[in-house]
User: Fold this.
Amino acid sequence: MKRPPWSSPLPAMLLALAALAPARAQQGDAAETSAPETSAPAPAEASTADTPDALSDEQVAQEEKLYLEALRSLSEGRPDEATNKLSRLLEKNALHAGAWLDLAISHCELGNKAEAERLFEQIEQRFHPSAAILELMAHYRASGCKGQRTAARSMSFKLGAGYDTNVNQGSSSSTVEIGSAGALKTYTLYAESRPRADHFKVLSGDFNQPIGSRGMLLIAQLRALRHSEVRTQDSDSALLGLERPWSGAGWTGRATAAYGLVRLGGELYQRQAQVLLRAVPPVDLGESLGWSLSAGYSTAIYPTRRYYDARTLDLGTSLAVRSKKSTLVLSSGLLADQGKEGRPGGDRSGWYGGANLVALLGDKAIAELGASRQSWRGARIYSKDFIEIKRDQDTHVLRASLLFPVGTHSALQMEVRRTFNRENIPLFQYDSRWFQFSWRTDNW
Assistant:
């Protein structure tokens, strides 16, 4: 049964606090939560501190923080986490009216009918709730407490067309020097290895499906790219992943595992697997700042180019600065890439950094600006007797986007991107300019 708008966790809390707060003064309930006995009697002037009505400011703040965390778990579709946090809160303060009500609702949404009914009865006996609270409990009782899906699945699609000045990442240099030191020879590159410009069309889709009541999310992504002339650069990709929220010792975050396939020019080009852990430390930076850490490990297998196979470790951090109309995200991290024996250049180490700004323009238009840099350094010479230097790679990307909502679920988007790939080996150095106009539809 669909929950009425006024029965969401936050309104329920406000109703409960307003209607049930007088119960805090009832001596019968206070006796049930008196402080535990100690070996030595407390001084007379401190005796009032042992009652729930005289909690210290620090205790009140801790209880309120735990309660807000429980409400957040409810709103994010994790009633099991909310249940644990509310139970801990009631161990500290059995007269927290809102916690009693939300705990009963959490058990009802988890399908624990007997426990939910027991808690509803306790609320009726202990707090003498108002008519509004009785109506709210009647709604959940009428639902049968069969368990409810707290988050809906979502789908989005994107259809676009654009132009790329270098679809094949062709070399910026027309010649290349190959050979051992002191015996270099200059060669002219074929046209296929030089930049090739082309128009393209792209279709992509995303699908998110909640699983169970623990906030688990199934993620599926599909993408198809087609060029007008350079068909060898046509690509298809598919990704399937699972994401789960977690919390512990004040930390919160999400854990993700994903597997993907990429086809290039009609052949399987890459198989990739990834695990990623994102974490938000228990540091209060205020509403305008958000700080998170991440750790990821991925593998990439190239069926037709096995010496390219790689395993990459990524350790990163990001800081979000929010205002009413904009969000700026700064990110950076360290990279370590271990290749197979015989891979040109051997293992690599690197780092990355970036800044991304999203801002509301006027009433509806959304602008996005981004800049990033990624650097790699090879561990040994790239190829003996051919390219006898260690490869150093620096890739700079500048991005800009404008999005204009059209109707309820759709939007038009214009995007531009400029890439500068600077290398000490001219053969791999390239530049590109990319433009795309697309229509997207979200939240289906």
Remarks:
- Confidence is low (pLDDT under 50) at residues 1-54.
- The chain has two domains: 5-143, 157-441.
- The longest helix spans residues 57-75.
